[in-house]
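Can anyone check this?
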Amino acid sequence: MNTLTIGWLAGAFFLAFTTYLIPRFAKVLSCLGAVFSLGYGLALAAIKTPVSLRLLDNFGVSLLLDELTVFFVLTNALITLAVVLTTWETDRTPFFFAQLLTLHGSLNVAFAVTDWVSLYVALEVVAISAFLLITYSRQERVLWVGLRYLFVSNVAMLFYLVGAVLVYEAHHSFDFGGLRVAPPEAVALLLLGLLVKGGVFLLGFWLPMTHAEAEAPVSALLSGVVVKAALLPLLRCSLLMPEVESLVRGVGVATAVLGVVYALGERDVKRLLAWSTVSQVGFVLAAPSVGGFYALSHGLSKAALFLVAGRLPSRQLPQLRAQGVSWSLGLPWGLASLSMMGFPGLAGFGAKVLTMQQLWPWQTGLMSAAAVGTAVVYGHLLFVPWRWSGESPSSGLQGALAVLLGGLMLANGVDLGVFTGSEMGKALLTIALGWGLYWGVSRWWSLPLPHAGERLEHLLGMMSLGLVVLFWWVWAW
């Protein structure tokens, strides 16, 4: 398994370089990279034994691929495969697929490593590859959004790198475990970098514009899997240190509520989906021990929603209600929305049940409110009229949606014990309450919210404020 692991980590980069040598096979090589990751993830799930590797002694790379990692590896594989399929019949150049493979490989590395420097390198490669994919269309607006994303990301990682050096000074290695003996300022700096990259709470205001302005397949990648590259290290740290777990759970709840509130104020479909991603990031962090399954469920649903959103006749909800959408798009759109709400029979149900079961008592009320809010948000998408038409999605999009929705169905097998009458009743009651609020209030009234926080200068200001709060928090231990 060790040799296979090294081959898997290097495979995507080898295929990316090969794409430049034989560009006519770019799509096939991209598909091969995703299938390889899918096979590796399934093999890892089957053996149920963690793979742990240390390369180059204490100064080098440490890897851990356990049950938690499996969910992220599978998410990356399925979403990459779906993006390759949906772009198969387009005229995108080999450069696009080479960057897609580079992003895929660097995400695999970010999910596998458990040392701060290797994670830093992986996250930097993720940011550069994502930037090149965001700006692929070369439109002026998208170029600005891409540069804004890269700037915020690099500033955050500068703080992170200083924190990594402080961990080494205290522990004489870069292992995650060194966080236990690291000075408080190292903890604050590392967490700041990860919270910004993960789009968490007020530090995540960069996310909605970035994810909404990119092309639909790139938005699917960003919301489905890229944002989760920083979430897995946060989950690992929270399972490592009780003090960090308290923080992660707290910001998880705050993020879930904030994202829902902002999503309710949106009438632009892609921005609504992007704010929903902020909220779902909060659900992943609110219960760290089951965050992997939630990340898989959310990633598959959100990728499907963004891919369909790219084919809708309009991004504006009022126009969509007037025009309607075809059944061929409405059906996958509805299934993915139901999974986000936690409807029984789709992976979102199991993920929400396990998350709610693992909450601390003080979290339950707010997270229940966020779950109801999620049902209201997706009521806006689900209750758009469907109409019969002769239009049908391209075969590539059909294949992509089959991969994502098939994954949502199969993921029900992760824990069949959640399918009890009590849990299904709670889920249906939550959804019914959300739909009632949608038809009674939210459909007719939109809460105007300030968006000044998305401006670049305010993003940097909130990063500074976040660092002050984190310093106060770690010194109060």
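Reply from J.R.: I decoded it. The CA atoms of residues 287 and 308 lie 30 Å apart.
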